[in-house]
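Quick start: what a row looks like.
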Amino acid sequence: MLEGFACPPKPLSCVSNTYVTEAALLTRYDRSSPMNGEAEVKYLDGDFRVVRPGAFVRCAVTGVAIPLEELKYWSVDRQEAYATPEAALQRFKEGLA
């Protein structure tokens, strides 16, 4: 036992002499439940807030699924997501007509 420590970390598993501790188990890919299906998102200026969890949103122009990790283009006024800058421009031009 090391001086100043109550006890060493408890190994949760041992594979080829590599111990995994409790702190090492949580990663950004761990979720309490699967995040399948379409998310409901509130689009803000420069950011968005997930209202209902899910894995993706749909492009308002093309209908293609956009993983939340790849979401870059949206309209705050229309509350719509776009898969590409071209799709966003197309929707913008439709609003001018």
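That is the whole record. Strands lie at 13-15, 18-20, 40-44, 47-52, 56-58, 65-67, 73-75, 80-82. Residues 33-96 form one domain.
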